[in-house]
TrEMBL record, chain B:
<feature type="transmembrane region" description="Helical">
    <location>
        <begin position="212"/>
        <end position="233"/>
    </location>
</feature>
<feature type="transmembrane region" description="Helical">
    <location>
        <begin position="372"/>
        <end position="392"/>
    </location>
</feature>
<feature type="transmembrane region" description="Helical">
    <location>
        <begin position="146"/>
        <end position="169"/>
    </location>
</feature>
<feature type="transmembrane region" description="Helical">
    <location>
        <begin position="181"/>
        <end position="200"/>
    </location>
</feature>
<protein>
    <submittedName>
        <fullName>Metal transporter</fullName>
    </submittedName>
</protein>
<keyword id="KW-0812">Transmembrane</keyword>
<feature type="transmembrane region" description="Helical">
    <location>
        <begin position="334"/>
        <end position="352"/>
    </location>
</feature>
<feature type="transmembrane region" description="Helical">
    <location>
        <begin position="306"/>
        <end position="327"/>
    </location>
</feature>
<keyword id="KW-1133">Transmembrane helix</keyword>
<keyword id="KW-0472">Membrane</keyword>
Amino acid sequence: MSWLRSLLSRRDVLRVGAGGAAALAGSVALGQSGSHPAGHPGAAPASPAPATSAHTGHGNNLMVGSVNHKRNGFDPMAMLTDWDWGKVSTLPNGQTLREYTMIAQDKEIEIAPGIFFPAWTYNGRVPGPTLRCTEGDRLRITFINQTIHAHTIHFHGVHSAEMDGVPGAGPGEIQPGGRFVYEFDAEPFGCHLYHCHATSLKRHIHKGMYGAFIVDPKEGRLPAREFVMVQNAFDTNFDGANEIYAVNTVGFEFARRPIPVQKGELIRIYLINILEFDLINSFHLHANFFNYYDTGTTLEPTSRIVDTIMQAQGQRGILEFKYKFTGNFMFHPHISEFTELGWMGSFQVVEPDAYPAALKAAGVDAGWDRRSRQGAAGGRS
Amino acid sequence: MTAPATAAGRWTSLWGLALVPLLLLGAVLAYLVATGGGLKTLQGPPVEQLKVSRVTLPERGVIQVHLVNDGPQTVTVPQVMVDDAFWSFTAQPAGPIPRLGRATLTIPYPWVDGEAHKVALLTSLGTVFEAEIPVATLTPQPGRDLLVRFGLVGLYVGVVPVVLGMLWFPWMRRLSARAMNFILALTVGLLVYLAVGTYLDAQEFAAALPAFWQGTPAVLLIALLTLGVLLALGSKRQPEEAPLGLSYRIATGIGLHNLGEGLAIGAAFALGEAALGTFLILGFTLHNITEGLGIVAPVVRQKPKFIQFVLLALIAGGPAILGTWLGGFAFNPVLATIFLAVGVGAIVQVVWEVGRLVARNTAALGAPLVGWSTLGGFTVGVALMYFTAFFVKF
């Protein structure tokens, strides 16, 4: 039963947070995060991407070059923490009203260095904006279709049939040039998603029309550093199978730029699986165990002390964990195929005093750090 | 003085007239390139096309992919997958590959001996082009040891059977005119079999060529051109004249065929499919033995010098050695296709020539051209080749 003891002791460690390990702060090497501007169309490289250290790759299993996030107009690293709280006001009955505008737009996006995908997007980004609110809020989402195909927004939540965003209910599919206002109360709390439900459904989803929809419980959750990870993939040659897998769209992005976190702090991940074609996805955390809240609709974990969970298409949940050691720790689905096809990244765990340097190395600022800690506070701090 | 001036004037006007359409063509092309010719709205989505001409494994842990862009537009390969995993690589030359351009990708991948691998190239528009490594094994590098071993293979497959077949010469000299005519008819049969086989082999190589080579029609046209040239060269010749010359032409045609066999064997070794090894070589030896018989059949009534036999054997059998080297070390599908297509033409020409000889002899014997003797000989020739090929076709 020694394995059980070790599990329990590890759990204790998780709860208390470890403070004793030797600090390696100054020597944390994050220097390979520099991004090389890629021309359009991307040029085949003349020299190999550096046969990388453990920090930025998986041996030679990597993508050559890096993605131009500026041209894309969104950055997977920024997407980890960019909660959209909407335009907030209070209704006469005291209920909080959050107003959002979602615009369907066609956009060619770079999903891997030099690889361009003709995406269908909400607000020009894949995944779409991370809508975040509190249980019981009134949500008013104005949807405008600026593309040449009909689209909808279908929210996972509780709402009337007219607000379901499917063909044949309420306004049905919103035609090109059309608009519609989806309005409902946010319930139940949890880690949800929204996506286009126009036909043909598979195509409307895998082309990029989806995003995270997080409803916080009224009583809030423990303060933590929070990230949203939308596990997605792209069928670049339209053969009904994915070529590139990722979280937040860009393959191997968090292998090239590990996510900076602090040793001992509580980390919470809102994890959503929006794969098409592949039946399941999974998440495996290296050198750590986590508590898992399936669909995020309970305040008690549905699985405790696990290091791998499985999600079917459309399934999602919340992970909570702390790191005992500093260093570079990988996360990826325990489906090796997806891992090798781009869905792989790592956390750069550092001592708190080394955190500003780690942020800089990852190319993010204090605002990113603030947003990552602000979610649990309901956007108030 | 006026006459030359007039001649010059005539010359100028003659070629001037010939140039008019070309000048106008230049103008139209310039207009189209500059303005799009009012067809802008007809432009569809980009078309990407790539041909993987060869995949080699030059050393442990390295895969090289040789590419030709045979599509209408420039193609870029920003990412490469091996066995469904993105992998680092270098491109030589780097950057986009223009139409008809070539590139070599070097991938540091730990391939596994004897197992299959799949390389996939992802273009900037997300199109996937795949290449198979059916059985991973080090691509043979030219070295003395391997050169000798491949040479031996060519020797067994080409030279040995031809020499053995030629050893029927003393026996044939004792045959009656009627029996000898049967042997010549048999020679026609085996040559027809070789012509068909060589044509199909040529088409197999042609099918793998980049589209702009137009491999399929090219094989037919090269074969026809070869046939035409050889017929024109021999148009003044009577069949009974210089039978030794006929033997040389048969040897040349068979030599080109054996070059093809050598190429196929060498390429199979290079692709790691040499497990067939000894059995395949044995089969080819058996299969090719009748070739020697056919080569010397026309000179049965002559007294060629010994050196002539040596030369005939080298011309017919030697190319198998050359083919094995080329196929194993420096396989070039374009040259392979051309050689085989020339071989088809050459073999058809000797079919024609030996056929005429058979016709003459049959007439001299007072038998119908298509009688049981000639048809029998022809059929036995085809059947010998067909059934011995059971040992070499997989």
